[in-house]
Amino acid sequence: MAVSPGHFMLARLDDVARWAQSSSVWPLTMGLACCAIEMMTVTSSEYDIARLGSEVFRSSPRQADLMIVSGRVAQKMGPVVKRLYDQMADPKWVISMGACASSGGIFDNYAVIQGVDTIIPVDVYVPGCPPTPDGLLYAVNLIQQQIRAGGRGGILARA
Amino acid sequence: MTLSATPPPDVISQTENTMVLSMGPQHPSTHGVLQIVLEIDSENVVKADPEIGYLHTGIEKSAEGLFWTQAQTVIERMDYLAPSSNALCYALAVERLLGITDRIPQRAQTIRVLTAELTRIASHCVWLGTHGIDLGAISVFFYCFDLRENILDLQEATGGARMHPNYVRVGGLNGDLPEGLLARLDALIEKIPGRLRELRGLLQANPIFQDRTIDIGTLSPEEAVQWNVTGPSLRASGIAYDVRKAFPYCGYETYDFDVPTRTEGDAYARFLVRLDEMDQSIRLIEQARRRLDTPGPVMIDDPKVALPPKETIALSMEALIHHFKLISEGFRVPPGDVYHSVESPRGELGYYIVSNGENKPYRIRTRPPSLYNLQALKGIAPGNLIADLVVMIGSLDPVFGEVDR
Which of B57, B86, B149, B404 to mutate: most A Cβ within 10 Å? Predict the structure, then answer.
């Protein structure tokens, strides 16, 4: 569509606001284990998470919208993850990346928390050990869809 | 060279002019979940105490509950940048316990060398990319991860998974190289040297990079030995110790390659050694590739260890029984203990394995190179700026899956 001066568009404010919010979900720089390497890979040129507007990894939880729990959460790391989640400003979302973060995975032992959802709420689970970068991109996509549909955490959320 | 190490005391003692700062465990530049308890005097580090264990996974304990072959699955997840090195070291150690080291097919050993060296390049790519980001050279990351992606594609073709292929097995390999892989490998071999030259061009003569790394985190040869540093970090201090040369495995003694060393011992020297190492890896890959034209078995011919060929199961009662036994209860390893080490991208990776004759390991103790390399941080950090600490951590290349296990 050619845009020239004088043209205008009509839209519902809800839709525009949700579109804007869903296109700038900034993840927290929090790498835990193997999955963190695949989390880094989504920012590389082959996968390029910038297409979704989520390439801005923030190191401070205060500036982040999305926590990607990328890997096994050890008992010692659990309180740290919880604290980081608490420090993130609302609205916030969580992706549990990989088998270990989702359920403890193959490490059913004394050292690993059996699923990060036992300490923080999770929006999307990504299967895999580790999941492919495409899997993580899809998870971010699902969060975007959730926001655009007016789901939990979104601006002007219906829920 | 004196070997009487006097490590600094563990307890942080705060004086009037200093403050204690916690760096990590969530920090963009600690390469994982490392916490460093810093005592700082304005911007200067007085004392740095690495606090580890935030990724303690109990891998060694988990492995005790799994069959010998299954244990490899958890072991690959220790050093997740070089899973094939872990699998290789474990397989070689168990093979020695079984007494089958000499009977591993030649082709399997060659492909093992190939995967180990490809893994080394992929691992160094991650190291260089993240090291670059720490220093503000973000474009390096994209070049490195593009190269790594090419290697992971091959890895995916061999084992089915991008990062943890579980391709190297006790007794040989999971299977032969898939059809068409050698052609893809040839294309990659042609591509990699140019890519490595590009990476060199981006950083080696870059004045900002040099300013940030030269004379930073200098390890003298004596200190490096005292701190038990191995791998590229040791060789950057002038000691040419490489497990591939000192205690060859998989036929490394039949390959023609050099062990690059530097004498400066600083972060820049470690950078150069790793770059040179990647060039040597390509040499090794080329030599291994030339040996792969003749087909051959890739798994030991021993029904007590290796699964029988699938087509024999329907025809031979014996094969069916062996298959059933191996799947349902695994193989047994004679009682005894063994230590075996390989040169992983980070240094000497070793497994001390004890067997009590059962179908599961009795005890597995790892010697993770990252753990020993990381402890040198305590020695080199004091007296530097906080910003340089990031360079030092990056140049030691720790992987926390391996440090904490």
Answer: B57
